[in-house]
């Protein structure tokens, strides 16, 4: 999937000049969303079929996330994490060019929260396997911070970032 770097470049051009057509950018963003959804279906099917991740109760009492991923294969966690980051980036670009009404942003925002939640479910794995568990986890948490809907979850993200920063 090489479409998303072009989207980022096009969004940058749009930000700094008037030459970029928002219609073209939104069409490419929708195309990238469709491709990412297909990748998500294939990735999820593969991971479930091989039982590489499974949901388990969080080991921390009163955690903001009641379940986390138990990871059998770190590469599966990395794939989930990287896919979530790309999905969030593409949807944020989409929101930036399509939202003339608040209703247009509802589905992309829900998708962003869903992908953010997946990243958050990898926090325990990353904490247990640092420094090598998930190298992209800090970037992923930064991309997902805005999606946290309450102060407690934001504090959990900051604690996780601080914890990851120790290495």
Tag the structure with descriptive keywords.
mainly alpha; 7 helices; two-stranded antiparallel sheet; 167 residues
Beta-strand percent range:
5-15%
- Portion of residues within helices: 55-70%
Q: What summary fits the major beta sheet? A: 2 strands, antiparallel
- Major sheet strand order: 1-2
Amino-to-carboxy terminus distance: 31 Å
Question: What count of domains describes the coordinates?
Answer: 1
Mean pLDDT: 86
Question: What's the oligomerization state?
Answer: single chain
Q: What does this entry look like structurally?
A:
The protein is mainly alpha-helical and 167 residues long. The protein has one domain (3-164). The chain has helices at 3-16, 22-50, 74-98, 106-120, 123-128, 137-145, 151-164; strands at 53-57, 67-71. α1 (3-16) runs antiparallel to α2, α1 (3-16) runs parallel beside α3 (74-98) and α3 packs antiparallel against α4 (106-120). The protein is globular and about 50 Å long.
